[in-house]
Amino acid sequence: MTHLDYLCSMETVQDILEAVTAPQLSAMALCWQGLTQAEIAELLGISHQAVKFRLDRAREQITRTVPEAAIILENRMKRKKGEQE
Predict the structure, then answer these.
(1) Distance between CA atoms of residues 24 and 4, nearest Å
(2) Percent with pLDDT over 90 in the chain
(3) Rounded-to-integer distance, Cα 32 and Cα 48, Å
(4) I need a labelling partner for 84 at 20 to 30 A (CA). Which of 34, 51, 63, 78 fits?
(5) Contact (CB, 8 A) for 12 and 4
(6) Regarding predicted confidence, which is higher, 46 or 2?
């Protein structure tokens, strides 16, 4: 089973959803839709630093709870940084 197969399984998705808080999940969903951290902050009515904190904590919690997701999250973040530069 590849990492993607594992991540896509319903059990893994459930594990990920249970690993993060609702505010973290909101920030993650907006980030994955392509919004910048500044745009997310404005939309949610919070500071840019709060968005960064939520995304960092969510990534840490998911990595700790679902270690197989760490590779995919790391690759995703590298792509996002490349797109923003």
Answers:
(1) 22
(2) 39
(3) 16
(4) 63
(5) no
(6) 46
The pLDDT, as a whole number, for residue 26 is 94
Residue pair 25/58 in contact by the 8 Å Cβ criterion: yes
How many whole angstroms separate alpha carbon 84 and alpha carbon 32?
A: 13
pLDDT per position as a tens digit, 10-41: 677 788 888 899 999 999 999 989 899 999 99
In angstroms and rounded to an integer, the radius of gyration of the C-alpha atoms of the chain is 13
| Joined tokens for residue 51 | 């968005």
81 touches 31 (CB < 8 A): no
Distance from the Cα of residue 74 to its chain's centroid: 10
Q: Which residue has the tokens 């404005």?
A: 42
Task: Provide CB contacts within 8 A for 7, sequence distance 6+.
Answer: 13, 66, 68, 69, 72
Contact 15, 61 (CB under 8 A): no
